[in-house]
C-alpha cells in the first residue's frame, strides 16, 4: 500500500530529523583541557562586565542618547571637557533624585542615569586625555577628603560606643533598683489572712 506522504523515504527521514527537538541532535562538548575550560582560566583574569547592573546601563544609555541629540554623540571626545561642569551636573541630578524627583523634566531620562552619564564622560575624558582638570587639588589637599572621612568615622564610632555604654550603665542602674525592690518586698512580713 503506497504511503500517504508523497515524499520519498529519504526526504521523509530528513524532514523528521529537522522536526526533532534540538536536544536529540546535540552531542556533549569535549575539551582537551585538564580541569576548567582554558577560556575560563583566561577570562577570570579580566574585568567582569557582568558585575554592572544592566538596568543601570539602560538608564545611563537613555541619558546619553539625550545628550547625543543635544550636543552630538561623543562630543566630549571632539572637544575637551571641564571636570567641574560635569561634577556640578552630576550633583544636581543626584540632589534632584534625592529630593524625590525621578525623571529630568527636559529629557524624561532618570536622574541617576544622567549622573551615571556624567561620571562615564568624566572617566572617558580622563582616560583619553580630553579632561580639563580644574579640581581644586593641591599637594596639601590631596587625600584630605579620605583622611577627614576616616577621622569623622572614628568620632562617630566613639560616640556610638559611648552611647551604648550609657545605655548599659542605665540598664544596670534600673536592674539594681528592681533588685532592691524585690529584696525589700521579700523582707516585708506577709499579711496574715483571718479565716472564720
Question: Roughly what percent helix?
Answer: 55-70%
- Helix count? 7
Please describe the biggest sheet, giving its number of strands, its sense, and whether it closes into a barrel. Answer: 2 strands, parallel
First-last Cα distance: 116 Å
Compressed to H and E, one letter per element, the order equals HHHHEHHEH
**Overall shape:** extended
Strand order of the largest sheet: 1-2
Cα gyration radius (Å)? 36 Å
Question: Oligomeric status of the shown chains?
Answer: single chain
Content-based structural category: mainly alpha
Please report the total strand number as a whole number. 2
| Residue runs with pLDDT of under 50 for 5 or more positions | none
Sheet-strand content, in percent, reads under 5%
Mean pLDDT: 87
Amino acid at each position: 500500500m503506497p504511503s500517504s506522504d508523497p515524499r520519498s523515504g529519504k526526504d521523509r527521514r530528513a524532514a523528521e530529523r529537522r522536526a526533532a527537538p534540538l536536544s536529540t541532535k546535540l552531542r556533549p562538548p569535549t575539551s582537551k583541557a585538564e580541569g576548567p575550560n582554558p577560556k575560563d582560566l583566561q577570562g577570570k583574569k579580566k574585568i567582569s562586565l557582568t558585575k554592572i547592573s544592566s538596568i543601570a546601563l539602560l538608564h545611563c544609555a537613555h541619558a546619553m542618547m539625550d545628550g547625543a541629540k543635544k550636543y552630538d554623540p561623543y562630543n566630549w571626545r571632539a572637544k575637551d571637557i571641564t571636570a567641574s561642569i560635569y561634577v556640578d551636573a552630576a550633583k544636581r541630578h543626584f540632589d534632584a533624585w534625592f529630593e524625590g524627583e525621578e525623571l529630568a523634566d527636559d529629557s524624561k531620562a532618570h536622574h541617576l542615569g544622567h549622573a551615571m552619564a556624567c561620571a562615564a564622560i568624566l572617566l572617558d575624558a580622563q582616560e583619553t586625555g580630553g579632561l580639563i582638570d580644574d579640581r581644586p587639588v593641591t599637594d596639601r589637599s590631596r587625600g584630605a577628603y579620605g583622611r577627614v572621612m576616616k577621622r569623622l568615622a572614628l568620632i562617630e564610632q566613639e560616640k556610638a560606643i559611648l552611647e551604648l555604654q550609657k545605655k548599659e550603665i542605665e540598664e544596670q542602674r534600673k536592674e539594681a533598683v528592681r533588685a532592691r525592690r524585690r529584696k525589700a518586698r521579700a523582707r516585708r512580713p506577709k499579711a496574715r489572712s483571718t479565716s472564720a
